[in-house]
Write a structure and sequence with these properties.
The complex is a heterodimer of chains A (116) and B (111). Chain A is built from no helices and eleven strands. Chain A is mainly β and 116 residues long. Chain A is globular and about 35 Å long. Chain B has strands at residues 4-6, 11-14, 19-25, 32-38, 45-50, 54-58, 61-66, 71-76, 85-92, 99-101, 105-110. Chain B starts with a strand and ends with a strand. Classes of the chains: A mainly beta (116), B mainly beta (111).
């Protein structure tokens, strides 16, 4: 089945120790997104790639970076995790053939990040 | 004012009853509307999308959209305990470049 895969599902890191989260998709979608979701809050968009074009949200901290080496894979790098970065990180994709305005986003299972 | 607003709940409904969830949005030019279900500790799962005024039915779920009132709702008929989850309303605004989520409504279906 075509799907969005995230690895690892659970990640524990130490304060200040860089961490990379991975997302892959078999949907061949053009757009990939990274969201941060803290407990009892709505998902918050960090950034997205439209194909190879990177689009950062204005309020995304510089501590968060992303890479998309090819259509299938996208990575979220947290350079110096703080305690406030503990959250669920969600990867999503959308096809964007007809245009952004109607496009459905499909989410991966998420990675739960714990910062000690 | 938040861009997308939902009552946080919990909305408690007896098994077999209809659960009614509401969502309002501030961007009058919004074009696309989605309902996602999220179980605790899991990722959002798409339930419905709606783009035009009126009702859209899919199984036990009905989405209703009223763009003039900037209001979208979700009805869950014959509610089951497995429907207990948080339901997220999400909207793509006039600029068409961002999906904005509401805070979610927690639904509890009691046997």
């Amino acid at each position: 089945d075509a799907m969005v895969i995230q690895n690892p599902r659970y990640q524990v890191t130490q304060f200040g120790k860089p961490v990379t989260l991975s997302c892959s998709q078999t949907l061949n979608h053009n757009v990939m997104y990274w969201y941060q979701q803290k407990s009892s809050q709505a998902p918050k968009l960090l950034f997205h790639y439209y194909d190879k074009d990177f689009n950062n949200e204005a309020d995304t901290p510089d501590n968060f970076q992303s890479r998309r080496p090819n259509t299938s894979f996208c990575f979220l790098d947290i350079r110096s995790p703080g305690l406030g970065d503990a959250a669920m990180y969600l990867c999503a994709t959308s096809r964007d053939v007809a245009g952004w305005s109607t496009d459905t986003q499909y989410f991966g299972p998420g990675t739960r990040l714990t910062v000690l | 004012q938040k861009e997308v607003e939902q009552n946080s709940g919990p909305l408690s409904v007896p098994e077999g009853a209809i659960a009614s969830l509401n969502c309002t949005y501030s961007d009058r030019g919004s074009q696309s509307f989605f309902w996602y279900r999220q179980y605790s500790g899991k990722s959002p799962e798409l339930i419905m999308s709606i783009y035009s005024n009126g009702d859209k039915e899919d199984g036990r779920f009905t989405a209703q959209l009223n763009k003039a009132s900037q209001y979208v709702s979700l009805l869950i008929r014959d509610s089951q305990p497995s429907d207990s989850a948080t339901y997220l309303c999400a909207v793509i605004g006039a600029a068409g470049n961002k999906l904005t989520f509401g805070g979610g409504t927690r639904v509890l279906v009691k046997p």
